[in-house]
Amino acid sequence: MIERLAGIRRKRQEEDTEYEPERLPIRRCIPDYHMGLYEEEILEREEGGWTNLPVDPPSKTTKEIIHDNIFTYFNLIFAILGLLLILVGAFRDLTFLPVIILNTLIGIVQEVRAKNVLDKMTMLHAPKATVVRNGRKRVIAVEDLVIDDIVIFKAGNQICADAIVEHGEVQVNESLLTGEADEITKHKGDMLMSGSFIVSGECHARLEKVGADSYISRLTLEAKAMKDGEQSEMIRSLDKLVKCVGIAIIPIGFILFIQSFFLNDEGFRSSVTAMVAAVIGMVPEGLYLLASVALAVSAVRLAKQKVLLHDMKSIETLARVNVLCVDKTGTITENTMKVQGLRATRHYNKETMPPLKGLIGDFAHAMSRDNITMEAVQAYFQKSTGRKAQKITSFSSEYKYSSATFEESSYVLGAPEFVLRDDYPAYEEEIEKEASKGYRVLVFGNCEETPDGRALRGKVTPLAYIMLANPIRKEAPQTFAYFEEQGVEVKVISGDNPVTVSEVAKKAGIAGADDFVDAATLTTEEEIRQAVQKYTVFGRVTPSQKRQFVKALKSAGHTVAMTGDGVNDVLALKDADCSIAMASGSDAAAQASQLVLLESDFSCMPSVVLEGRRVVNNIQRSASLFLVKNMFSFLLAIFSAVFMITYPLEPSQVSLISMFTIGVPAFFLALEPNKSMIKGHFLTNVFLKALPAALTDVLAVGALVVFGETFGVNATDISTAATMLLAIVGFMILYRISRPMNKIRVAVLLLCICALLFCSTVLNKLFAITGMSAECIMLFVVFSIATEPVLRYLTMFVRKLKYFYDRIRRNLVLGKEAKEEG
After folding, report:
1. Structural domain contains residue 764
2. For labeling, which of 65, 181, 234, 772 is most exposed (least CB within 10 Å)?
3. Would 77 be classed as within a structural domain?
4. pLDDT tens-place string over residues 406-428
C-alpha cells in the first residue's frame, strides 16, 4: 500500500513540475528510537502527504521535452517563413519544412530515450536510508521516508530531511549549506539540517521536516528563480552563435525584401522567396539539435558502461581535463582494507598490561563501523576482555584519530604524526620502515589525559603499530598508463603517510610517484601553489587542503578532475571542474559528483574520456559544416544588399545543398569514434575551419552573379549554376574535414554526391534545377576550376593569421608573467 501511494505521487509529480503534495492533518508523535513508527502510523502519514518527495523532479518530463523541442525560436521563424511561402503560392520552396520536422522528431526521440535510460538508472541507484519501523531496520529510498521516521545516520550519509537526534552522537559537516567546513558535534536533541553530511559517528534521528518543508528544499525553491548551472564551453558557444544569428536574421530579412520588392522592382513572390532563401541559409537549424542528440547518445552509451551522469556538461569537461586528482583508497586500490600485522613497541609491557590484542579489541568494539579502517581493525581484533568504554571520540578525517576512555585509562588510535605530535621524530625511523613497504601505519597508544572532544591533551605513549593495506586494483597500471599517454597529469592526494602513498602509486605505475610531500608541511597558499606544480604524491592531506589543491591547480590554468568516495572528498569534488565518485563510497560523495561510477571501477575512466572526446571533436567538425552555410548566407546577403542585387538562390536549392553537404554527413560524422585530444576553444576552432570555405563560396557565387548580369545570363540559369558551385565547394570542405578518410567516410561522401546528382536530375523541378545556357555553362566551368586554388590559398592565409595571433598572444602572456615575477 505504501509503495503504491508513493508511486501515484511520483507519477503526479512527473506530470506536473509544480506539484506540491496536499498535506492533511495527522497525529504527530515521538516514537521510541528502538521501535520507530508502526504500520498504521506510516500509512496515515503516506495518505496525508507527509512524505519526503523532492520538490524538483530529477529530470524534465516527456511533456516538457516535447514542448521544448517544438516551441523554439527558430521553429517559429520557420513557421512564419513557411506561411509566407504558402501565401505567395511558392509550394515548391517548402522543401525545408520536412527537414525541420524530421530534425525536431529526432531530437524528441533521442532526448526521451536518454531520459528513460537515465531515469531508470537514477531510480535504481537513488539514495537509500536505513530506517527503524516496527522495531526492525529497513533500507528504503529516501523519498519513501515519512515525517517522524527514525533514521539511522552513519559516516558518509547525507542528511535527507531535517531531523532531531534521538540517540547517539555524530560529527556533521554543513559546508554545503553554510560554506563553513568546520565539523559540528551533534548530541541528543540537536537539529540535523538536510543537505549536510555525517563525517563520523552514528545516531538515531527523528525526521522533523520532510519534502518541501525541509531546509534543503527551501533552498532549492529559492534557487529556481536563479539561472541554471554553468554550461560547458561547447553549449555556451552554440548558445552565443544561435543568439547572434537569431537577432541578425530579422533586420537582414527586412532589408532584402524591401530592396528586392521596392528598389529592384521584383515581384512580391520573387522578393519573398529570395528573402526566405537568405534567412534559411543563415539559420543553423540542425547544429544545436546535433549537439543535443550527440550528448544524449553519449549519456546512453555511458549508462551501458555503468556510468551515471548527474550533469551533461561533464562529458565535455572530462574530455578537456589535463590534471586528474585521485585518492589512494577506492581509486588506485580496492575499497577494502585488511590488517597485515601488529607490532608492539618498547613501551608495551606484557607482564603488567592486558594482552595487546584484547586491549585493541576492547577499543575497536567500542567504536562504530563508520569507515573501512575501523571495519578492518574490528575484523582482525575480534577478541575482547569485555571492558566497556565510558566515552568515545569517533574518527575524523580532519584530526585523523579516534579515542576511547575506559575506567582505568584512555587510549587513542590514529595517524602517527597526529597522535604522537612533537614526539613523532623519536619514532619516525621505525614507522617509515613499515610505511616504505606500502603499509598504512596506525599508532595505538595510551593517553596521559582523557581526550576532551577533539582536543588531544597530554603525551601519548605508543603501545603498538598496526599495519594495514589495500590491494591495488588489477586494472590500475593500465589505466594510469593510458592517462600518461594522453598527456593527463595524475596527482595522488591522500590522508595517509606520504611514503606509504608513494609506494602504492609506484606499484600502480603512476609517473612521478617518487616526488612526494607531506601536506602537513604546506602551511601557506604560496607553498601549496608551488607544491601542486612540483609534486605528484601528497600525503597527510586534510579535507580543507584538498580544496586548496584543486583551487591552486585551476588558478594555474589547468582543467581539473577529482575522484573520491569519502565524505572528506566532498568539498574538493564540488570545486573541481569535473567530479567523479565511486558508488561504493559515501552517499555525500555520490550526490556531490557529476559522474558516478556505479560499479566503482576506475578502469572504465579511459572509455569515459574517449566518449567525451568523440562528442566534442565530432560536433566541432560537424559544426564547421553548418557554419560554412551560415557564414556564406550572411555574407552573400550583405553582398546582395550592398550591390543592390536580388539574392540569387531559392529556398529549395538551399535545402538541397544543406541536406547533402551538411545535414546527412554531419549526422554520421558526429557518431563516429574520435580519440583526438581537444585543443583550443570550440567556437574559434569551428570558425577558423569554416571561414575559408565560406569566403570561397561568397567569392565564387558573387563573381558568378556579377559576370552573369554583365553578359546578360538569365537569373534562373545563374541560380542553378550557383547551386552547383556551392555543392562543389561543399564536398571539397566535407572531404577536408573528414580526413583521414576511412571506409565509412568515403561511403558517406560518395553516397551524398550520388544523392545530390539524383535530386538535381530526376527531381530537378522540385529543387528548381534547370538547364543552363552555353554562356552560363562556360562561366560555371571557369569558376568551378577556380574554387580549388581559392579555397587552398584562403586556408593557408587563415592558418598564418592564426599562427601570428597565437604568437602575439603567447608573447603577451609571457611578458605579463615576467612583469609579475619581477
Report:
1. yes
2. 181
3. no
4. 988 899 999 999 899 889 999 99
Mean of all residue pLDDT scores within the chain: 84
The three cell numbers locating residue 741:
578518410
Mean pLDDT score, 591-619: 84
Cβ-based burial of 300 (10 A; exposed 0-12, middle 13-18, buried ≥19): middle
Residue pair 561/594 in contact (Cβ under 8 Å)? The answer is no
Element (H, E) at 599: none
| C-alpha to C-alpha distance for 582 and 574, rounded to whole angstroms | 15
Q: Strand pairing of 307-309 and 595-597?
A: antiparallel
Domain limit, last residue, from 469, 493, 519: 469
Q: Are residues 198 and 255 in the same domain?
A: no
Q: What does the pLDDT read at residue 778?
A: 92
Q: Which of 160, 158, 130, 159 is nearest to 143 (CA)?
A: 160
Range of the domain at 485: 307-334+473-600
Residues 131 and 27 in one domain: yes
Domain-embedded: residue 115: no
Sign for the CA dihedral angle at 97, 100, 103, 108 comes to negative
Residue 158 lies in a domain: yes
**Cell numbers that stand for 49 in this block:** 502527504
Number of domains comprising the chain: 4
| Domain match, 596 and 709 both | no
% helix / strand / coil in the chain, to the nearest 5?
A: 55, 15, 30
Which of 428, 350, 340 lies closest to 379, judged by CA? 340
Which candidate, 629, 618, 626, 628, places its Cα nearest to that of 651?
Answer: 629
d(CA 323, CA 328): 16
Exposed e or buried b for every residue in 706-744, given b needs 16+ CB within 10 A? ebbeeeebeebbbbbbbbbbbbbbbbbbbeebbeeeeee
Cα–Cα distance measured from residue 752 to residue 729, given in angstroms and rounded to the nearest whole number: 14
> Rounded distance, CA 283 to CA 242, Å?
8
Residues 783 and 761: their CA atoms lie apart, in Å, by 21
Instruction: Return the active site residues.
Output: 327
Backbone φ, ψ for residue 502 (5° rounding): -65, -45
Q: How confident is the model over 331-373, as pLDDT tens digits?
A: 888 878 899 999 999 999 888 888 899 999 999 998 877 677 8
Query: Could you please report the per-residue DSSP string of 233-265?
Result: HHHHHHHHHHHHHHHHHHHHHHHHHHIIIIIS-
pLDDT at 125: 60
pTM of structure: 0.71
DSSP character at residue 422: G
Using 50, 70 and 90 to split pLDDT, how confident is the model at 216? low
Of 199, 208, 206, the residue nearest 154 (C-alpha): 199
Query: Residue 350 belongs to what H/E stretch?
Result: none
CA 148 to chain centre: 36
Burial class (CB in 10 A: 0-12, 13-18, 19+), 523: exposed
Interatomic CA distance for residues 322 and 557, integer angstroms:
10
Q: Quick one: angle between helices 774-821 and 715-738, nearest 10?
A: 40
